[in-house]
Protein: Lysoplasmalogenase
Organism: Actinomadura rugatobispora
Amino acid sequence: MIDTCSGHGSRIDAPSGAPSHGRRLRSRWPVLAGMVAAGLTAYGLAEGAELAPVLTASALVYLAAAALRKPAAAWPLFWGAFAVIALAKVMVPAVDPTWVLLGTALAAVVYGLLTGAARPAEGLPLQTVAMAGFGLVAAVTVVAGAEFGAYLVAAGLLGHAAWDVRHHRTGKVVVRSLAEFCFVLDALAAVAMVIVAVRG
């Protein structure tokens, strides 16, 4: 817009509705947070079993949010799931956190059924099926270990990344910021696992 009042007709102001660079950057915080989380997850990564709890937690967040019927609960659930992983490793190091998370998933399903969260079908029922699939991949990874487990969990994480994209588009079950964050975390963690497996 030309400023005719000040006599500086050559100055052009940016449209008031145009988003600033800072605002665009702030809107992409889930991507940046996902990259940081993926970096921390990949640090010192050696085998697929290390990522099995991450895959299980990713699916659990969606399942628990569906059981509660509160998409906004996704972020507290995410932090809760990873707190469970950390505590399990410290308090019961002999037990893989994957099993603890799978037990938590079962409790979430029971809670959802008891509180009437069985509908709609794309909520608890669909998330239960997804949890069963991703949970099975994680469980087999823990049992199999070695190279096969590495590629299996990487495939599982990429599958969940696609699940994240689907939910980001629909805006259902979890908030979009969580789906965006989880997509970046899952995809980058999968790539890191493949690189570690290839390098041996």
Summary: The radius of gyration is 21 Å. Confidence is low (pLDDT under 50) at residues 1-14. The helical segments are 21-27, 29-42, 52-68, 74-91, 97-114, 124-144, 146-170, 176-199. The chain has eight helices and no strands.
